[in-house]
Design a protein that fits this description.
This protein is mostly beta strands. Helices cover 0% and strands 49% of the residues. It starts with a strand and ends with a strand.
Length: 124
């Protein structure tokens, strides 16, 4: 059974940093890809960053150069380092994993497994 548990969210001021962690069990990184998604109040869920089975990464334009996705296979943990945070980054952040390699990485509908989410709040 796949289980994803996020941690590391919190409240910071604009310009600050946070590192999100996702403890992974029951899932093989080589299967497909994993990613971080977010959903702000009244907004649709969107891709933040994805890392594929071969190490390739993808980021939504708004976080490029500020966020970094990585994984530690030994610790079975997925990370999202977030720097230079902005108020518009405020959202509930989810860790997700998928079984299939085909299809758009950014389509959250194609992800099979989800964590419970961790809140990130950035004040101006």
């Amino acid at each position: 059974q796949v289980k994803l548990v996020e941690s590391g969210g919190g409240s910071v001021q604009a310009g600050g940093s946070l590192r999100l962690s996702c403890a992974v069990s029951g899932y093989t990184y080589s299967s497909s890809c994993m990613g971080w998604f977010r959903q702000g109040t009244g907004k649709e869920r969107e891709e933040v960053a994805v890392i594929a089975y071969d190490g390739r990464t993808s980021y939504v334009d708004s976080v490029k150069g500020r966020f970094t996705i990585s994984q530690d296979n030994a610790k079975n943990t997925l990370y999202l380092q977030m720097n230079s945070l902005r108020p518009e980054d405020t959202a509930l952040y989810y860790c997700a994993a998928r079984r299939l390699r085909i299809g758009s990485w950014s389509d959250w509908n194609l992800y099979n497994y989800w964590g419970q989410g961790t809140q990130v709040t950035v004040s101006s």
